[in-house]
Specification:
α2 packs across α4 and α8 packs across α9. This protein is mainly α.
């Protein structure tokens, strides 16, 4: 097939429309056109067209991934979801994930550690809730357990729970004893602390 036209798109400055045998065929980024040295009157085989389009999709997917990562760290699952939303094919997604991993932009262990540090410093939570949140982000159980065990032990969780309850108790200062205890217990449980730890801290506070 012959390239009969290469026209710059009006809305996307780096995007061009490619015409083959007189008809619009597909859009390409300027990097793709430069890489393959595409010019009007060039002849393209079906295999070459397939190669060009796959490269262009890969470049587009990389751009999406880098922009997504520029805002904050992301998990592998989040990257996959974002690329699928933009209609990137599965084989291209795998190539992009491989590249991001090689470039150290994608590391679920590092992501889990950073996520743990952020949630503990901003609004303390129990290990149960943190494991749940990490699971929702696509972090496998083994990785989540390892990161939590190494960076958020039982003593740290205990300290965080006491600090959280002390702050919450200000809102309950005019409540009767039984209601205060019940609300305190429910609050700690809702923040992912287990029953035994919640009971222990509340009893210590009463004493």
């Amino acid at each position: 097939m012959k390239i009969t036209g290469i026209q710059k798109q009006k809305k996307q400055k780096k995007r061009y429309n490619l015409f083959l045998d007189g008809d619009f065929a597909f859009g390409l980024y300027d990097d793709t056109i430069l890489k393959y040295g595409l010019r009007t009157n060039d002849e393209l085989s079906e295999d070459k067209i397939k190669e060009i389009r796959e490269y262009d999709e890969f470049s587009f997917g990389k751009y999406i991934a880098y922009a997504f990562l520029a805002y904050k760290a992301r998990s592998r699952k989040e990257i996959i979801k974002k690329l699928k939303e933009r209609k990137i094919s599965e084989n291209i997604i795998e190539d992009i994930l491989k590249l991001l991993t090689e470039q150290k932009y994608l590391d679920d262990s590092s992501y889990a550690k950073l996520y743990l540090e952020n949630i503990v410093s901003s609004k303390p939570a129990g290990r149960r809730l943190i494991k749940l949140k990490l699971g929702e982000k696509g972090i496998d159980k083994e990785t989540a357990d390892k990161i939590i065990e190494e960076n958020y032990d039982e003593e740290s969780e205990y300290t965080a729970a006491r600090k959280l309850l002390k702050k919450y108790s200000v809102r309950l200062k005019n409540k009767p004893g039984p209601e205060k205890k019940r609300k305190s217990f429910s609050y700690l449980i809702s923040r992912g602390f287990d029953f035994d730890l919640a009971n222990k801290i509340i009893n210590e506070t009463e004493e």
